[in-house]
Design goal:
Blueprint lengths: L11 H18 L2 H30 L5 H10 L1 H14 L9 H27 L2 H8 L2 H12 L6 H19 L11 H33 L4 H26 L5 H7 L3 H29 L2 H23 L5 H28 L1
Helix pairs in contact: 2-12, 2-13, 3-5, 3-10, 3-12, 4-10, 5-9, 5-10, 6-13, 7-9, 8-14, 11-12, 13-14
Length: about 350
């Protein structure tokens, strides 16, 4: 009789109850202010990033033509991060991280790469529907995993490799559907150019992410909230300076006045699109930074996975973006790839703990 006894199967309700207890314990370990800030940061990612993408595409669909101006808008909101950084020195009773030659040069290089990255994405939004540009931009996850493995020696597992393959397949599906995915005023050659620039921008974004992590590992040696904000401020500042030079030298800054007059809705609409574009992009970056610090890269990955369909659906509703069966399939496959990546990252995190 003793040999025939077996452990009864765990019911679904027992699993739910156990999860609720674990969630409640995790909730009690942190003050309410932590969860409020985490909620606001996650909301900023899910609202601000899609809004920024929609506004970028709205600029071009309403008569804007400059790629430099949109890339300039992406970093023009850097003072918002500085306004949040400075009070942390007083409340946290910390001092600014001293700058040395290596750290300064790393910020300059990252700023230049960020400026180039924003310019590539500006070309993408000029020639692609916002929903397509957002889907292609999700390929940055592939390059983040690749460069993280090569430069930072981050671990990878079968789930992460699976995610890389899946997202690559999703990008290929979009490429096969180019005929039904273009605006009437965009030629096939411009669509192809936008596609290429989006992929290159995603690759550069993945490289920037890996290099930023390398700066923390090699030069800073710590990862506190104010140090993360300092890096964001410095990189955005140098990106702003590089992009400002580009806007002035190209003559696009001088042409903003005439462009505003021909913009659909007039000068007021023109200024609102640019101002809110700068604010939303910076709020999205701040939200992502806060989520990474307050929680984990896994939660940031979950929110990134969610914001891709939010951007696509919003673009279809607000901008009448084309949404074919191929694009829906690509969207579902991309989401699957994110889930696989999140699972793989979570497994690695548990293994190292």
């Amino acid at each position: 009789m003793e040999g025939s006894s077996s452990t009864p199967p765990v019911s679904l309700w027992s699993k739910i109850s156990t999860f609720r207890k674990m969630a409640w314990e995790a909730y009690r370990k942190k003050p309410i202010s932590h969860w409020v800030l985490l909620f606001l940061s996650g909301a900023a990612m899910l609202v601000a990033f899609p809004a920024s993408s929609i506004l970028s595409r709205l600029y071009y669909s309403n008569g804007g033509t400059s790629k430099w101006i949109i890339s300039w808008v992406a970093v023009a909101g850097w003072p918002l991060t500085a306004l949040i950084l400075f009070p942390t020195y007083f409340f946290c009773k910390t001092l600014p991280t001293p700058l040395n030659l290596k750290l300064t040069l790393s910020y300059v290089v990252l700023g230049f790469l960020s400026a180039a990255d924003n310019l590539m994405y500006a070309y993408a939004y000029a020639y692609l529907p916002a929903s397509t540009a957002a889907l292609l931009a999700s390929s940055s996850l592939v390059f983040s995993a690749l460069f993280g493995y090569l430069l930072v020696k981050n671990k990878v597992n079968a789930s992460i490799i699976n995610a890389v393959v899946i997202i690559t397949a999703a990008v290929t599906i979009i490429a096969l559907d180019s005929d039904s995915d273009t605006y009437g005023n965009i030629s096939n050659s411009q669509y192809i150019m936008g596609f290429i620039w989006d992929i290159l921008g995603s690759a550069l974004h993945g490289l920037i992410f890996a290099l930023s992590e390398l700066v923390f590992v090699k030069l800073l040696g710590r990862r506190s909230f104010h140090v993360v904000l300092e890096q964001q401020v410095m990189v955005s500042l140098f990106a702003f300076l590089f992009t400002t030079i580009g806007v002035v030298v190209s003559g696009d800054f001088q042409g903003m006045k005439s462009e505003a007059k021909t913009f659909k809705g007039g000068t007021t609409s023109y200024l609102l699109v640019l101002i809110w574009g700068a604010i939303t992009f910076q709020l999205g970056v701040l939200g992502g930074t806060a989520v990474l610090f307050l929680s984990s890269t896994v939660l940031a990955g979950v929110l990134n996975a969610i914001r891709v369909p939010i951007t696509s659906i919003a673009a279809v509703i607000l901008l009448d973006d084309p949404m074919s069966g191929f694009k829906i399939l690509s969207l579902l496959i991309t989401f699957w790839g994110f889930v696989s990546y999140i699972y793989g990252s979570s497994s690695l995190g548990k293994g190292s703990s």
